[in-house]
C-alpha cells in the first residue's frame, strides 16, 4: 500500500470520520492502512529476493530479524510479524508488555534503517517509524501516548515534523486536560497544526519555493539504535 505523498492533504476515513491512519488501532480501516505501510514494503522485499512459498518467506524473516541494522524498518517490522514468540506465542514483538522475548525484539527493531523521504525535515522518518510502532503495539505504552501518536501520524506521513515548541504545546494540553476531554482537546491541537501547515505550504507555493518540494534531497540513512525509540 502506497503511503500518502509528501505535501498531500490528510484524507478523512470513511469509517471513523477522523483522518486516515489516526483511528488505529480501534478503527479497522485505519488499522489496515497502518499495517499496509509495513506490508507493502515487505511485499516489495519478497519480490526483490524472488521468494516463493511459506518456508522461504519464514527463512527470510528469520534472517532479517537476526540483522535488523541491515534492513529498512518496515521490512524488519514485517519480518517480526511472521515469527512466533517462544514465550507468549504471539507475533514476535507484538505480545503483551512484560513478555521477555517480545520486549527484547521490540527494542532491537529500532536498530533498523530509517531513510527520510525527499522533501521532509530530517528525522521525519524516525517519527513515522516510532508512531507506527506504538500504534501497532499499543499495549506496550500508555493510552495517552498512543492517543497523541496516532493523531499525529497522518501529519507525519505527509511530511510534517513538530517543532520543539509545538511538541511542548501538545504535552501541555495532555497534562492539563481531564481524561474525559483529552482526546477532543488533543484533536483540536492537531487540527490547528494541520491548518498552520496548510497555510505555510500555500505561502511557499506562492513564493515559488518549498522546503517540502520533491526535489529536496533526502536525508542520509540513519539508525536510532536498539531500544531507543525516541
Automatic annotation (TrEMBL):
<feature type="compositionally biased region" description="Basic residues">
    <location>
        <begin position="220"/>
        <end position="230"/>
    </location>
</feature>
<protein>
    <submittedName>
        <fullName>Uncharacterized protein</fullName>
    </submittedName>
</protein>
<feature type="region of interest" description="Disordered">
    <location>
        <begin position="200"/>
        <end position="230"/>
    </location>
</feature>
